Amino acid sequence: MTSILISGAGIAGTTLAYWLRRHGFAPTVVERATGVREGGYKVDIRGAALDVVERMGLLDDIRALRTDVRTGSVVDGTGRQVASMDGDSFGGRVHQDAELHRGDLARLLHQATDGVEHLFGDSIAAIDGTRVTFAGGLVRHFDLIVGADGLHSATRALAFGPEEHFVHDMGYNVAVFSVPNHLGLDREELTYVGPGRTALVYSTRQDTGMKAMFLWRSADKATGRDAQQRALADAYRGSGWEVPRLLEAMAGAPDFYYDSMSQVRMDRWHAGPVALIGDAAHCASPASGQGTSLALVGAYVLAGELKRAGGDHTIAFPAYEARMRSFAETNQALGPANIKRMVLSSRSQVRMSMLMLRLAGLLPGKDRVMAKVVEPIHRAATAIDLPAW
Prior knowledge:
Elements: E1 3-7, H1 11-22, E2 26-31, E3 42-45, H2 48-55, H3 59-64, E4 71-75, E5 81-86, H4 87-90, E6 98-101, H5 102-112, E7 117-120, E8 124-128, E9 131-134, E10 139-141, E11 144-147, H6 154-160, E12 167-179, E13 188-194, E14 197-202, E15 210-217, H7 225-235, H8 243-248, E16 257-264, E17 270-271, E18 274-276, H9 279-282, H10 291-308, H11 313-332, H12 334-342, H13 347-362, H14 366-381
Parallel strand pairs: 1-2, 1-11, 2-7, 4-13, 11-18
Antiparallel strand pairs: 3-6, 4-5, 8-9, 9-10, 12-15, 12-16, 13-14, 14-15, 17-18
Helix pairs in contact: 1-5, 1-10, 2-10, 10-11
């Protein structure tokens, strides 16, 4: 039985473990964290990814865990509502797309891999052919190795080279953390747009608090929690609305997250017995809204190609890449276009955008206008045909 080590117990890695086991392989998952990562931002499952979770028998469970965000609104610096629409339209969801917390999805997927070997609290320290040395000192041999360890993949660095060769900064930063629900939101999302910076908060059915998210244009990258929080505070200094109060809450947030908005671009996603999936191979950035769907679909495709090739990676890895590359690149293209709509560059652009939003809310047929806006997302989400392996 072919043994396959998967680095990373996120969405891509756990989905891959599920399908590999189902196809008769022997997967092992190693994860730096001490357990399944809870919490996180809300994520969308769209298009072809819905077919993947349905084939896993998880679609009903996923729908039961939907965030149920009912409305999304844009507000000005005084908190006055500029425009509002239903939650699905605001989030670009159509055709039964599902939104849920990343942690809920991770837990569902982990439960579906019952019987798969998991090595929590460890990571890959070195790869020598198919010989793997773990950070904890363990040395084991595997037939194949798959890096599913995200944007800053250590597996990619070991097998393909330094991160700077593949990770391309889009010129924006993102920060997300939990805050008290002092606004009393009930399954609502509010977005405040300033020049070069956007802030939003939302509440969901399962969460008594709120999540705050910040997106801003910046070439500066901070490392370490204290420096990152100072950078965020500096970027939003002088902002209106609820921003000062939200920033006051970040020091005590247990789940503070900060990173650059980046994409991964590689000529090849495989080298010898090592392959990459998900963000490690083709991160599209949070601005694409497609990272989770790409992870689900990529895992399904790689496992299926390995099954079809009888475990021969010299056939399966190139076939996986051939089937996935166009799909990944189509979804990556959403990122740069979306971030420019999410973070406006100047005061005049903000004023014009607010005016257009006010006018759009007064015009008949606004649903048709929104349908045209979200059509590129739906088209990208369905830009692959999935075989029934």
